[in-house]
Amino acid sequence: MEKIGVKVFINALTIFRLVFTFAMPFLIKRVSHIAFLIIVAVLFFTDCIDGVLARVCKAQTLFGSIMDTIADKVLNIILIVCISGEIPVLYIVFIGEIIIATINLLGTINGAPIRATMLGKSKMWVIAVAILLGYMYYFNICEKIYVNIVGIVVVIMQVILFFSYGNKARKTNEFKVKKLVFKKGQELKKALFDTEYYLSTIDVPLSEKLTVNQ
User: Fold this and answer.
1) What is the rounded distance in angstroms from the CA atom of residue 60 to the CA atom of residue 196?
2) Residue 79: which H helix or E strand, with range?
3) Residue 52 CA to chain centroid, in angstroms?
4) Could you tell me which of 122, 209, 192 has the C-alpha nearest to residue 157?
5) What number of other Cβ atoms are within 10 A of residue 190's Cβ?
6) In this structure, is the dihedral angle defined by the CA atoms of residues 153, 159, 164 and 169, taken in order, positive or negative?
7) Which of 74, 78, 135, 140 has the most CB atoms in a 10 Å sphere around its CB?
8) Per-residue pLDDT averaged across 104-125, rounded?
9) 13-20 long-range contacts, Cβ below 8 Å, gap at least 24?
10) Cα(44)–Cα(42) distance, rounded to whole angstroms?
11) Contact at 8 Å (CB) between 155 and 186?
12) Which regions of 67-186 does DSSP assign to beta strands (E)?
């Protein structure tokens, strides 16, 4: 399979996860408990497999990275919102995710090179475990104490990341964006879909990758 085919497949897998996520609130009352848990597990598995495939096949792209991040956040937030009323600790996790996403967005806009850390990646998997346990409790399959324990671990990780990302974002306080002129045509295509470009600019702020130097 050519690289373009691999990239299309990987990005399609990510977009599938994003689109299918919006069906989860409707499926929770329409499929069996086991079927729902399997669907949730499969969605989390696609989160793992698309990144692994991109690295193994050397098909990483900026577009894929952006879509993967969006799909991850949307999946977690929607799944948490559906049951946060039953499990308060997940509501705290939800608020933490919103705060961290906001810090990352503001940092990106202001030119901060905020990259995913090992702690951040680990947190996503711990959240996945918390969500799965949350639904198992919701379906009366496990005890609430297990959800609370994992949820507290997530909150602790979120607090650490809050200060870590916040410090990186604050370093760009003097950076002022007067006007952003986004790349167009072939320049934009290269920025979004060229693997070599993505790897060579991995430490460059997102705002600089997508805009024209003035």
Assistant:
1) 9
2) helix 62-83
3) 15
4) 122
5) 14
6) positive
7) 135
8) 73
9) 13/46, 13/49, 13/50, 13/53, 14/46, 14/50, 14/64, 14/67, 14/68, 14/71, 15/67, 15/71, 16/46, 17/43, 17/46, 17/47, 17/50, 17/71, 17/75, 18/67, 18/70, 18/71, 18/74, 18/75
10) 5
11) no
12) none
The secondary structure element, H or E, covering residue 108 is helix 88-109
Q: Which CATH architecture has domain 3-210?
A: Up-down Bundle (1.20)
> pLDDT by residue (tens digit) across 127-168?
999 999 999 999 999 999 999 999 999 999 999 988 877 666
Question: What is this structure's pTM?
Answer: 0.85
Q: How far apart are CA 102 and CA 89, in angstroms?
A: 20
Report which DSSP code applies to 211: B
CB atoms within 10 A of CB 185: 7
Give the angle 198-54-65 at the CA atoms, nearest 5°: 50
Mean pLDDT value of segment 56-80: 90
Is the pLDDT at 81 greater than 70, yes or no?
Answer: yes
Classify residue 30 as exposed, middle or buried by CB count within 10 Å of its CB (0-12, 13-18, 19+).
exposed
Q: Is the pLDDT of residue 60 over 60?
A: yes
Nearest to 135 by CA among 18, 58, 43: 43
- Token readout for 62 is 């900026």
Say how far apart CA 103 and CA 126 lie, in whole Å. 20
Element (H, E) at 71: helix 62-83
